[in-house]
Design goal:
This protein is an alpha/beta fold. Helix content is 29%, strand content 15%. It contains two helices and three strands. Strands 1-2-3 form a three-stranded parallel beta sheet, sandwiched between helices. The longest helix is centred in the last third of the chain and has 19 residues. It is globular. The two termini are 22 Å apart. The N terminus is likely disordered.
């Protein structure tokens, strides 16, 4: 998340946050207004990265007038979309990729 808003390298035009959501590495308040549109996808039962952090990132982006969407997966754990992980959920993985593709198509179409 840190480099999305104008850090080193080219600025991103859209970003998708899978299973992250912030934490000790929350973006600095000055970075958030420069964020591109963001889609947050997070498991509600994630015990590795609390879903509260996803809510915090969502709220911080919204508070700065940012374009952010969030979808939470009930019962899903951390890395629910990684086929090699014990926490993998094929239905949630398919839904997350569908949402990601739709989001990126909408945001990158222009």
């Amino acid at each position: 998340v840190g480099g999305w808003g104008g850090g080193p390298g080219p600025a991103a035009r859209a970003g998708v946050d899978f299973c992250g959501g912030g934490g000790d590495g929350d973006p600095a308040a000055g970075d958030v207004p420069r964020f591109p549109p963001v889609l947050i996808l997070h498991g509600e039962a994630d015990t590795e990265v609390s879903v509260d952090l996803a809510h915090r990132l969502y709220d911080r982006i919204r508070a700065h007038g940012g374009d952010v969407e969030m979808h939470l997966y009930p019962g899903a754990q951390h890395v629910f979309n990684a086929p090699w992980a014990a926490t993998y959920s094929a239905p949630d993985d398919a839904d997350a990729w569908r949402r990601t593709i739709e989001f990126l198509r909408r945001r990158l179409a222009h």
